[in-house]
Design brief:
eight-stranded parallel beta sheet
Length: 234
């Protein structure tokens, strides 16, 4: 059973990697610039182990408790990212496992993160989540003004390293709406690069199982894939 699981996940990873290469070439990009993050939400540890064994060392988890249970004693060379909403009362648990928090959506969360990291003597990378769809159900900064005001405050917090931006496209089959969402984030990324060159941001995380090819065409360099690798969520 374990060998079958590994073979299935390895095949799925190879298939997605081939599609990444194809999408990058169509967009005139270097495929090596694009990282595949395996998102293990609701999946047991064996799935994460299979992905790691197949060569994927970048893994994402949505919930702090699940991340803690799954990755507290995982391979030391794996990169564990929290990609789901972070509540302030769970910051300490999150930074004990994660090397990056990819879903910072308010200054207060970043402030608590900085405080806990300082106490532990640990630096951590962060992405700022932006709500490009305008959907109430999604987290993220909701205006350019709010985003830039927050960057200017967050950048002064100790032990935090702003690496870039993250978004989730609208849940729709409308390619124009999805592309517009990704294009908006890419434009914001370029504005931050121009206005804050000293931050040296380098990460644009956008695209999931259903829309990663569009995300690659619009400049994403981390795609977050769960369903295509591991099947539907439990």
């Amino acid at each position: 059973m374990e060998n079958i699981l590994f073979k299935n996940i390895q095949d799925n990873i190879n298939s997605v990697l081939e599609e990444i290469i194809s999408a990058a070439k169509i967009a005139g990009r270097d495929p090596s610039e694009i990282k595949l993050m395996a998102v293990t939400k609701t999946k047991p540890l064996e799935y994460a182990e299979a992905a790691y064994k197949a060569g994927i060392k970048l893994l994402g988890e949505n919930r702090v408790q699940e991340m803690e249970e799954k990755y507290s004693s995982f391979h030391s060379d794996a990169e564990i990212h929290l990609i789901g909403h972070l509540q302030r009362n769970k910051v300490k648990k999150a930074i004990a496992v994660a090397c990056s928090i990819d879903s910072i959506d308010k200054y207060e969360t970043a402030e608590e993160l900085s405080k806990c990291c300082k106490a532990l003597g640990k630096d951590i990378s962060i992405l700022l989540e932006y709500n490009t769809s305008g959907e109430q159900s999604k987290n993220g900064f909701s205006s350019e003004k709010e985003l830039f005001e927050s960057i200017d405050k967050i950048r002064n917090l100790e032990n935090l390293n702003i690496k870039g931006l993250m978004t989730i496209a609208p849940f729709t089959d409308d390619e124009k709406a999805i592309r517009g969402s990704f294009r908006m984030l890419a434009n914001l990324f370029r504005k931050i690069e121009a206005s804050h060159p000293d931050l040296k941001i380098d990460t644009l995380s956008m695209g999931m199982s259903s829309d990663f090819k569009i995300a690659i065409e619009e400049g994403s360099n981390i795609i977050r894939i769960g369903t295509r690798l591991f099947g539907s969520r439990n």
